[in-house]
Amino acid sequence: MEQYVIKGGSRLTGEVLVSGAKNAALAILAAAIMADEPVTIENVPDVRDTRIVLDAIKEIGAIVERVDKHTYKINGSTIYSTTVDYEYIKKIRASYYLLGALLGKLGNAEVALPGGCNIGSRPIDLHIKGFKALGATVEIEHGMIHAQSDNLTGSHIYMDVVSVGATINVMLAACLADGNTIIENAAKEPHVVDVANCLNCMGANIKGAGTDVIRIKGVDKLHGTSYSIIPDQIEAGTFMVAAAATGGDVLINNVIPKHLEAITAKLVEMGCEIEEYDDAIRVRSNTKLTHTNIKTLPYPGFPTDMQPQMAVILSCAEGTSIVTESIWENRFKYVDELSRMGATVKVEGNTAIITGCERLTGAQVAAPDLRAGAALVIAGMMAEGYTYVDDIKFIERGYEDFDEKLRGIGANIIKAECEKDIKLFEFSVS
Hints:
Elements: E1 3-7, E2 13-17, H1 22-32, E3 39-42, H2 48-59, E4 63-68, E5 71-75, E6 83-84, H3 97-106, E7 108-112, H4 125-133, E8 137-141, E9 144-148, E10 156-158, H5 164-174, E11 180-184, H6 190-201, E12 205-207, E13 213-217, E14 225-228, H7 233-245, E15 249-253, H8 261-270, E16 273-276, E17 280-284, E18 293-295, H9 307-314, E19 320-324, H10 335-340, E20 344-348, E21 351-355, E22 364-366, H11 370-382, E23 386-390, H12 402-408, E24 412-416, H13 419-429
Parallel strand pairs: 2-15, 3-14, 6-7, 10-11, 18-19, 22-23
Antiparallel strand pairs: 1-23, 1-24, 3-5, 4-5, 7-9, 8-9, 11-13, 12-13, 15-17, 16-17, 19-21, 20-21
Helix pairs in contact: 1-2, 1-6, 3-5, 4-5, 5-6, 7-9, 7-11, 9-11
């Protein structure tokens, strides 16, 4: 079984390049099948989740041409099936974007219920509410969601809670519906804006993405285009925290600093020095970091996907920090693993109370989900001695060449496939 092996104590320095946004890519790849002309998507991150969606799109008949590692040309004119029961699609949350895309394009869709990381329940009631408001009938049977409509019609939809997935899914279906659709209390995340921008490049008429009211005027059809996905906000944030956690000095390239403001503010509050450029951000840390309090909120608040990484760095900060998780109820599953490394963390409901310790020590740990796995890698880089991170399949769902990029800025880390790899690594860095 593959695992990351890390020897802690190295200070990260140099430059690292951020990949395209995974969460935007998954929705945009689904959107691309809605046109009957080729759609070229650039800056696609080469991660497990995007490969699964591309395979699922092929399974239903779309033409998928790999131009290079990060560019795909997709043509949805050859789709012959609206049933997406591809074996692996159940494992990722973004499978439901194919529901909105196929419903909007063909008026019929049947997609396996979504999976993903076990960080909390992922209700699809808001998705169903939105589809029904557009005139679709929706049923769930045998682990499949079936949506059907002879004629989708624009509607006024209020989201009971802010939901990125439901906002995007309704947007996908509504852009080809008759008439006008208004989505109120819409999610404002950068990847919602990115999906809307891509759809507009394909001929959709969407206004207000990035605000809490999105207005969509239905069009008859979408056409081909070429579109480049935004940089990954969470990957950039993860490298920012890794630099700060190791007392490093790292220039993180291919970022949109505006998307990182909540993370930047907290790191500055803790004592980091941060410089922003047009498409890069530099993080320097050379003093003992201090405690802070964090509460996860929908964008532009502090992102839930950065909560585990920040908790790790706070585990060695001076004083006591309080981290409140308001999005996912199971997001503290990594705490037991972090405690094995010497952290002092007490979880009460949706709140973690973190008392800063002098240092972490290496241990055998397992990644419980994508972001927590990345956080444990950061913990390993902070720790004294060797850390062995199992279940790295979760990490590879959303980080492209994670170990390679970290090595490029000075981390002592390898992806080991066997005991021999581990021994050679330990010998080489001892």
